[in-house]
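Entry:
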Amino acid sequence: MIENPRLDLLIAEHGRTLTIVLVGIGLLALLATGWVAATPATSTTTQEVDQESIATETTTSAIVVEDGPWEEGTELEDSPVYVLSATPELTLTPETSVPTDETSVTHEVQVHHEAERDGSVFWDETEQQSRMSASVEDGVASSEATIDVEAVRDRQTELQEEFDGVGTIRTVVQVVVEYETGTYSGEQVLVTSLQTTEEAYWLEESLADSTEHSQTAQMEVQESPNTAVIGGLSLVAAIALAGAAVVVTRGPIDVDTARRSIHEHRYAEWISRGSIPMWVGDYHVALDSLEDVVDVAIDTNERVVHDEQRGLFAVVNGEVVYYYAERGQWEQTAWPELELGTQSAVDDEVDEPPTVPTPREDLSEDLPDPDDDDAWDQI
């Protein structure tokens, strides 16, 4: 474990409070992480609902009525042009795609003549060719209508003679689709020009159209959990709980020991470890703190010697020794601290106080001479 005297002092003075605060922060961060993950934010957005599509396409076909380029009875489908003499009738087959088979669809086929001059219509006429309710199967409503193109051509000729010199005649084919889906109803009008000559006819454009239906609604959309917030809270929880574990594992720490360690680290460049014999120096000056010893070392340009065995910090300056010891005076640091047990009197009612021998009396006979350089090796 990394030594940090300041951290040790903080733990020594406020260890219990730190543990409670860090554990509380960690638990709150874990609860907040779970809450953020379990309750993601929601937003309101506009979405299209009840979407339905109605699409109509019209195919053309004609049966050959006499031999010629084609055999009689041949069916021509979606031909770009039809020969009038070979195929005098044109069949239109509208097919409407619907959402469900319950949709009601009506197909109406019209031939529309109009007279126009300078781009403006001043007369028109509509001939209904067919109108029927289309049968719906597999989502497709279909029907058939047949146009007698020879009759249409004859009518065009009549109108051109009537409006000769007044305007031009234009003939169009219209397919009107009416539908009811249950949700939506509407109408599609498919229009294309019918061009005819004495020999042939054709439709200029395809008859097709599509319609989209939908409604808008306000929807609440659940967003993804905020990973940045979850990660941050998880990190806070991990750091807080790890800090609480560090406080617990480093404790208990003595406050005075922690403070002394701070001073030792602060003045480490002035302190050397070593052994200080009892006989060194003629004068021994006791100082109040380690800082005072370091100040003397700085003033005298000497080093502080730390005798760990005696618990002593001292500066030797000639015959004068400046020292600081937690155990008291210079003489009291001569011997290691001894823990002696108590003695009990024979009489259970009276407890005799323990007798602690002093170095000068009872221990003087057993312990070596403190002025001897090898005294500590003999202990």
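The two ends are 33 Å apart (CA to CA).
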